[in-house]
């Protein structure tokens, strides 16, 4: 289903009765879904949404659009008339929440303020109206705390410290044990904090509270943590956030009230059942903050069966309506259930595959839609190793399995340390009592997250699942002391910062030390060691198998492997490769053969050079015979020698020392001296732009001819053994058609000689890599001499950007990502505007010259999910990637072929 386009009328505010779930661009995810639930007749507190367009206008101009205040006033008047009370009136105040709501879920990254409308006067009226003085003062202290931190920029820890002092003075552990008089004193303390830190009094005018909160939500779109989260999740920066003004309902009115978060299926496993958290006598932020430990949602049946039964019915309605796992926030106010939010829920990788197949079996979605519910990134997560529980390890705790994976690292107790140590190459586990949005940097840097508080709906759990990060929450038996930077485990053992721990996000178990890992069952399935439908196959393998079958039926792009030997080729074939898209022959010249290459480089005469090539020929031929046997019946694209020759020689410093020592000892060193002279002769300031690729074949007589002969003889031998070799010869680093024509003429002559000598007809395609901007710009000419193009996007990215990959990723890419110059590294996901434009131009020009030109890609982008979609769009025939990325590329190729604009399950 495609999303409705936003109306062209300049309208900045929509009542919940006016929108629907397809207006996410305009109303944000929260506002659109509140409107949808209102349309379904579910119990949603009345309210209205300020659009993302208003936010963008505010951020662009530094002030709200001229019409916005009047529109807000009109909708507020209508809300007051409907509720029969005025915002913040003294006797019976209307209170509202002001909540952010972007198109894509960004849990905890932007701002929310509850209880807007409370003041020194209206708090008395609320107490009288509710018949509960404690509730009123609790609500007021919450407003000052949230408003002070969110709107006025007061350090949140100051409020927390004042709250802890109040509990200590009362000798209680939880805030619900504070009485009205205690909370009244706390309000006074909070107001003093605001006055001192913000330089102004807490505003008593309810409309001023609301207007300032709206602006704060707008501004939170560009807050550091929101920008970091968007970069991490690849959410565009120009969307803006909507703002939802919703009449307050209260979960902190006593034991018959409460708040909770529910899922229609388990977001960790995908299993159907009753999943979520509930907290009596609490407001919504208490659940996700993890400050008080919740009870399982199933407990609500005992606490309030009427509300529980109604909630179960609503959850079924929402899942059938959205046809997906739904994440729900609700509040119960004195036995009355209210729905505060629903959205398509974030889920773990395993849950995504299980849920997609379950929904197909239930008839709610078809195969095409199912492919949009899973991603290659999720499949890659499922291929990570797991802990080997058969090993003797010391389990020291167990929490809630919030986000799966096996994470090992040094315990760190704050975000700053996690980032610092990670940048130094250390693997770390971030350990906290509970996380909050300020911990996002550390969560990204860490291998995994461990908290002693919170449940599956806590901030740590929700954010970790969204990032695919291992997480264990609510490990209550672990005593986390962040100030002393230590954790005490049952039995009294102390884990100091820097000690290694292991956490299992699939079981919730926490271990001391490093736990060994074993292969994922998904990898065992791809390797052919686990078969779907077998007694020992788990349901996850079955779900992955079915989704891969869907993808393979739908995809147009073929998927090949980058493989340089028979072992890798066989593994790639098991993983579903449909050929080899890149065999790098330079890898065949390493090890014991390096000496033979040294002979070639040191050759002073044609005879010496010919002898070196003759020595290399049978070894090259043997390599190719093994490859053709492993990939029998499938294409094998072999790239002729590409890197600079100096890479096959010893290090210049090491060699210089060796020669100097030999001379000082008067030992024989003629060969080392010749090598040193050769190293100096071949030294280049920028070897990646020097004598390499096709240039080697043109200046070193016989080098490419030897390789072509080895390929041809291997193909003939395999064919005579009743095999089906399908060799393709690829010339690297071509910049002009003349280079390719010269090499091709020599190759055709060699192939003809082998055919005559063996009596075997050979069909060897000859093509080239497009990895230089000039090659892309003159692709129409180059296609006259090439039967195929393979885009070498690694080098093409380097030459388009002027980047040396080996240097820049470590030197300034981090800064570029942090400043938003890159959303993602151009070496990870193809730069569509620059490099991608050249790929598209070259593909079109090449096919105008040669309509049957085969087009592929063999750079690392061939296994990147987002890049695969681009290659599908520009009409390439195949992508090629490392063997372990083949399943990811297959899945994404299927998704690309069935992509629908209405599906987005971030």
TrEMBL record:
Domain PEP-utilising enzyme C-terminal: 542-894
Annotated keywords: ATP-binding, Kinase, Magnesium, Metal-binding, Nucleotide-binding, Pyruvate, Transferase
InterPro entries, sorted: ATP_grasp_subdomain_1, PEP-util_enz_mobile_dom, PEP_util_AS, PEP_util_C, Phosphohistidine_dom_sf, PPDK_AMP/ATP-bd, Pyruvate_phosphate_dikinase, Pyrv/PenolPyrv_kinase-like_dom
Enzyme class: transferase
TM spans (from-to): none
Active site annotation, chain numbering: 459, 858
GO molecular function: ATP binding; kinase activity; metal ion binding; pyruvate, phosphate dikinase activity
Occurrences of domain PEP-utilising enzyme mobile (ranges): 426-508
Source species, domain of life: Bacteria
Domain Pyruvate phosphate dikinase AMP/ATP-binding positions: 65-293, 301-350
UniProt family annotation: Belongs to the PEP-utilizing enzyme family.
Residues annotated for Mg(2+) binding in this entry: 771, 795
NCBIfam families hit by this protein: PRK05878.1 (NF004531), pyru_phos_dikin (TIGR01828)
EC number: 2.7.9.1
Catalytic activity reported: pyruvate + phosphate + ATP = phosphoenolpyruvate + AMP + diphosphate + H(+)
SUPFAM superfamilies documented for this protein: Glutathione synthetase ATP-binding domain-like, Phosphoenolpyruvate/pyruvate domain, Phosphohistidine domain
Keyword flag Ion transport: no
Protein name (database record): Pyruvate, phosphate dikinase
Residues reported to bind substrate: 584, 639, 771, 792-795
Required co-factors: Mg(2+)
Pfam families hit by this protein: PEP-utilizers (PF00391), PEP-utilizers_C (PF02896), PPDK_N (PF01326)
């Amino acid at each position: 289903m495609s999303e409705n386009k936003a109306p062209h009328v300049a309208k900045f505010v929509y009542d919940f009765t006016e929108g629907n779930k397809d207006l996410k661009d305009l109303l944000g995810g929260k506002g659109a879904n509140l409107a949808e639930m209102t349309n379904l007749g579910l119990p949603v507190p009345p309210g209205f949404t300020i659009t993302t367009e208003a936010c963008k206008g505010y951020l662009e101009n530094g002030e709200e659009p001229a019409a916005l205040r009047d529109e807000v006033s009109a909708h507020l008047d209508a809300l007051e008339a409907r509720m029969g009370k005025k915002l913040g009136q003294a006797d019976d105040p209307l209170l509202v929440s002001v909540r952010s709501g972007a198109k894509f879920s960004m849990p905890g990254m932007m701002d929310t303020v509850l209880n807007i409308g409370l003041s020194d006067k209206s708090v008395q009226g609320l107490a009288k109206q509710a018949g509960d003085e404690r509730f009123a003062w609790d609500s007021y202290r919450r407003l000052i705390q949230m408003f002070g931190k969110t709107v006025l920029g007061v350090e949140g820890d100051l409020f927390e410290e004042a709250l802890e002092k109040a509990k200590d003075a009362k000798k209680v552990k939880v805030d619900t044990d504070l009485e009205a008089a205690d909370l009244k004193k706390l309000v006074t303390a909070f107001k003093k904090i605001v006055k001192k830190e913000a330089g102004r009094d807490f505003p008593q005018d309810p409309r001023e509270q609301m207007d300032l909160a709206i602006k704060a939500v707008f501004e939170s779109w560009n807050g550091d943590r929101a920008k970091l989260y968007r970069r991490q999740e690849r959410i565009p920066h120009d969307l803006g956030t909507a703002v939802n003004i919703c009449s307050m309902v209260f979960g902190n009115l006593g034991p018959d009230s409460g708040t909770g978060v529910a899922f229609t299926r388990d977001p960790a496993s995908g299993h159907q059942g009753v999943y979520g958290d509930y907290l009596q006598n609490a407001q919504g932020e208490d659940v996700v903050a993890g400050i008080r430990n919740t009870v399982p949602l199933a407990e609500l049946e005992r606490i309030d069966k009427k509300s529980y039964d109604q909630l179960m019915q609503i959850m079924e309605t929402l899942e059938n309506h959205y046809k997906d796992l739904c994440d729900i926030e609700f509040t119960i106010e004195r036995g009355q259930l209210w729905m505060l939010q629903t959205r398509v829920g974030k889920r773990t990788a395993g849950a995504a595959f299980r849920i997609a197949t379950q929904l197909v079996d239930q008839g709610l979605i078809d195969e095409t839609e199912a492919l949009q519910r899973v991603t290659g990134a999720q499949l890659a997560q499922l291929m990570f190793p797991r802990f080997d529980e058969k090993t003797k390890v010391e389990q020291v705790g167990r929490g809630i399995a919030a986000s799966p994976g096996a994470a090992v690292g040094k315990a760190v107790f704050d975000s700053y340390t996690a980032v610092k140590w990670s940048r130094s190459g250390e693997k770390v586990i971030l350990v906290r009592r509970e996380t909050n949005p300020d911990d996002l940097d550390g969560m990204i840097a860490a291998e995994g997250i461990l908290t002693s508080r919170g449940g599956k709906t806590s901030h740590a759990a929700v954010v970790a699942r969204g990032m695919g990060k291992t997480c264990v929450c609510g490990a209550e038996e672990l005593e986390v002391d962040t100030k002393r930077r230590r954790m005490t485990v049952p039995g009294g053992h102390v884990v100091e910062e820097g000690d290694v721990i292991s956490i299992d996000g699939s079981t919730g178990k926490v271990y001391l030390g490093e736990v060994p890992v074993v292969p994922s069952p998904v990898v065992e399935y791809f390797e052919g060691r686990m078969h779907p439908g077998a007694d020992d196959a788990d349901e996850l393998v079955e779900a992955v198998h079915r989704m891969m079958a869907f993808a393979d039926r739908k995809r147009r792009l073929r998927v090949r492997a980058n493989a340089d030997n028979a072992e890798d080729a066989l593994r790639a074939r098991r993983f579903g490769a449909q050929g080899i898209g890149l065999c790098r022959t330079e890898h065949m010249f390493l090890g014991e053969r390096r000496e033979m290459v040294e002979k070639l480089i040191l050759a002073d005469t044609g005879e010496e050079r010919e002898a070196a090539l003759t020595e290399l020929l049978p070894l090259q031929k043997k390599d190719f015979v093994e490859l053709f046997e492993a990939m029998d019946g499938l294409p094998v694209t072999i790239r002729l020698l590409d890197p600079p020759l100096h890479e096959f020689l010893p290090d210049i410093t090491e060699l210089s020392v060796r020669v100097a020592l030999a001379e000082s000892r008067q030992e024989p060193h003629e060969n080392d001296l010749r090598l040193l002279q050769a190293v100096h002769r071949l030294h280049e300031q920028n070897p990646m732009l020097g004598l390499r690729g096709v240039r080697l074949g043109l200046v070193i007589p016989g080098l490419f001819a030897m390789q072509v002969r080895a390929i041809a003889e291997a193909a003939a031998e395999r064919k005579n053994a009743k095999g089906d070799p399908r060799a393709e010869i690829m010339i690297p680093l071509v910049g002009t058609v003349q280079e390719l024509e010269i090499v091709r003429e020599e190759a055709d002559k060699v192939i003809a000689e082998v055919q005559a000598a063996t009596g075997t007809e050979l069909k060897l395609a000859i093509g080239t890599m497009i990895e230089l901007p000039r090659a892309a710009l003159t692709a129409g000419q180059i296609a006259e001499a090439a039967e195929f193009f393979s885009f070498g996007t690694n080098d093409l990215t380097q030459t388009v950007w002027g980047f040396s990959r080996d240097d820049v990723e470590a030197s300034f890419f981090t800064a570029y990502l942090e400043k938003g110059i890159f959303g993602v590294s151009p070496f990870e996901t193809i730069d569509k505007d620059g490099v991608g434009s050249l790929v598209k131009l070259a593909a079109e020009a090449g096919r105008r010259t040669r309509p049957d030109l085969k087009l592929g890609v063999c750079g690392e982008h061939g296994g990147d999910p987002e890049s695969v979609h681009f290659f599908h769009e520009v009409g390439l025939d195949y992508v090629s990637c490392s063997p372990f990325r083949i399943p990811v590329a297959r899945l994404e190729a299927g998704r690309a072929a069935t992509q629908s604009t209405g599906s987005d399950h971030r």
